[in-house]
Amino acid sequence: MTRNVVISGGGTGIGLAAARTFAAGGDRVLLLGRRREVLEKAGVPGALVYAADLTEPEEVRGVREFVTAELGGRVDVLIHSVGGNGALEPPVASDDPLDVIAHDWTVNFRINTLTAALLTEALRDHLASPGGRVLFLSSITAYRGSTSSPYAASKAALHPYAHELARVLGPRGITVNLVAPGYVEDTGFFGGSAPEDRRAMWIAETSTGRAGTPEDIAETLHWLASPAAGHITSQVIQVNGGAERGR
């Protein structure tokens, strides 16, 4: 049976890699993101697209209506890949340090945490029962910290939410898991290439001696969404070449 797969942030980076992987497996994919032109240019065969700012409740209601109309109200797999580096969002119009801090923390939690919570709650009743899958993108920084504490904290905040969802949705035959990537290239997370000294440091921290790729994460998500992973829930899967353990 063809599954309905909803992917936020599906137009670029990890989300796009996941969309291509699921589509290649015969699933029907819905790409969500703020920029319709990016979604339409993603080139995922047969994909539906819907542009929405997932930090805004009214726009998330629009997603729910679209899912009802176009996907028959059934979501088999929900993947939260939207978000990223809050430092790339427009800055606050103030030089006051406290204004800057308030803005930084608020932006990161809005794009990385609130988006996931709003979309999940909007589609909770649409998740296939049994067999539904909810998958969150966390980060190695949720364990190790980061030079961007707001970003790390916004990802860490997904963990207790996912664990609670796993308990609540488990009786319906729905699993909920997180994937925690380390350094992944070709995602646009840095707004360009990562500084070479930091890139070399992050790769040196791995046991595999290489950076991650969006496809590494996409394949892990695909497996977690498969019947083979049906008894795995409330887990954080580390996909970072062992870097979370350090050197």
From TrEMBL:
Keyword field: Oxidoreductase
Residue ranges of coiled coil: none
PROSITE patterns noted in UniProt: ADH_SHORT
EC number(s) reported in the record: 1.1.1.-
Transmembrane segments: none
Top class in the EC scheme: oxidoreductase
SUPFAM superfamilies hit by this protein: NAD(P)-binding Rossmann-fold domains (SSF51735)
UniProt xrefs under CDD domains: SDR_c (cd05233)
Domain Ketoreductase: 3-187
Single GO term (MF): oxidoreductase activity
Pfam family name, one: adh_short_C2
UniProt family annotation: Belongs to the short-chain dehydrogenases/reductases (SDR) family.
Protein name: SDR family NAD(P)-dependent oxidoreductase
Organism expressing this protein natively: Streptomyces lateritius
